[in-house]
Amino acid sequence: MHWYEESFGEDYLKIYSHRNNELGMKEVATIIKLLGIKKDEYIMDLCCGNGRHSISLARLGYRVLGIDLSEYLLSIAKARAQRLENGWVEFKRHDMRSLPYYQLFDVVLNLFTSFGYFEDDRDNYKVITEISKVLKNEGRVLLDFLNPCYIRKNIVPFSHRIVDGTSVKETRWIENNTVIKRIIVSDKSRCKTYMERVKLYTLDDFKRIFYSAGLEIKEVYGSYSLEEYDENSSSRILIYGTKA
């Protein structure tokens, strides 16, 4: 079993509990402004997880389809969506390398390093090709990825925290151009180990990948504050592109 098929279960929400709904709403406000999303446009949230951004967009009146591979996270997203008083959001399970849609979406979002999951570059490139395929002509994409240059200089080898009485120990290192994280989650009754592996891609890599998929990079930022991207100091690469 691949790491991404077992790492996005119940413990995932504890490990990344700092990514809360309030922060998600702020990020959504930035995304709407940056991409100029209109209320009649159709949005795909690719690798939507538990629907944090999808549901925030739906609450604001946008039509959203959330896609993820994790059945558990999708079940959480669907349960949360049922509590919506207004808005339109749907969640479906698909592999991001093979999406059954063609020129249907005005906007595709791929947020918080939901890219680079595959060992083979061709599989990762296929994700960008699929994004281009599902976008309408002149559609927009926002891809949010970690900055490899920053990570290489600032990687935190080890951290330990307690989340709701559960111990979360994380060990990080870089090997074969891949950032690897070992996560040990434990409490009084159990101990579980997860692995995360993300292939590192630079902005120059993305320029080539986007171009080959028929996408054009319009703007690049270093954070959701929309500060200018700096290879050395920005922790993230926020890429806004369009389908040519």
Task: Provide keyphrases for this structure.
Rossmann fold, four-stranded antiparallel beta sheet, 29% helix, 2 domains, alpha/beta, 244 residues, seven-stranded mixed beta sheet
Report on this model:
- The structure is a single chain.
- It is built from 7 helices and 11 strands.
- The protein has 244 residues and is of the alpha/beta class.
- It has 2 domains: 3-147 and 200-243, Vaccinia Virus protein VP39 (Rossmann fold); 151-196, no CATH class.
- The protein has a 7-stranded mixed beta sheet with strand order 3-2-1-4-5-11-10, sandwiched between helices.
- Strand 4, helix 5 (121-134) and strand 5 (135-146) form a beta-alpha-beta unit.
- Helix 2 packs across helix 3 (52-59).
